[in-house]
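Ticket #4471: structure export looks truncated?
Reporter: QA, pipeline team
Priority: medium

Steps to reproduce: submit the single chain below to the structure queue and open the exported record.
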Amino acid sequence: MAKVPRNFRLLEELEKGEKGIGDGSCSYGLEDGDDIMMSFWNGTIIGPGHTVHENRIYSLKIVCGEHYPEQPPTVQFVSRVNLPFVSQVDGKVENTKLPCLAHWTRSSSIETVLVDIRREMASFNNRKLPQPPEGSVF
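Actual output as written to the record:
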C-alpha cells in the first residue's frame, strides 16, 4: 500500500477535525490557517461526565513535526490538569506514559490522541484525581 504524503494526510485530518469528532467532545484544527506546513494545531477536550473533569474544557497545543505521521505529534496542555502522563511543570504529555503515543503507528492521528486522553480522564485511576482550579493554565 502506498504511503500518503504528510500534507495530504494532514489535510484529511484538518477536514475531519473541523467537523468535530463523534459527539463533539474532542475537536482540533490549525492554530493558524496560513500555516502551509500544517505543523501547529489547537485541540479541545470536553471533560467526560461523572468525573472530576465533567463540564471542564481543556485546551491543548499539538505540533506535527516534519516526520509526522511516522512519528507522533508533541502534545501539550494549555489548561492545567492533573493526570499521571502530563508534566506538572509545562503541561507536556509524556509520550511513554500515554498508550497511543507510546505505541504510535502511522495509522494513528491527532484524533486518536485526543480520544485516548479523554478515555484516560475517565479511567478508574484518573476520574477522581484532585484537579487545579478551573481556568488555570500552564
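Status: closed, not a bug. The export was complete when the record was re-opened. Leaving a note from the reviewer for reference: The chain has three helices and four strands.
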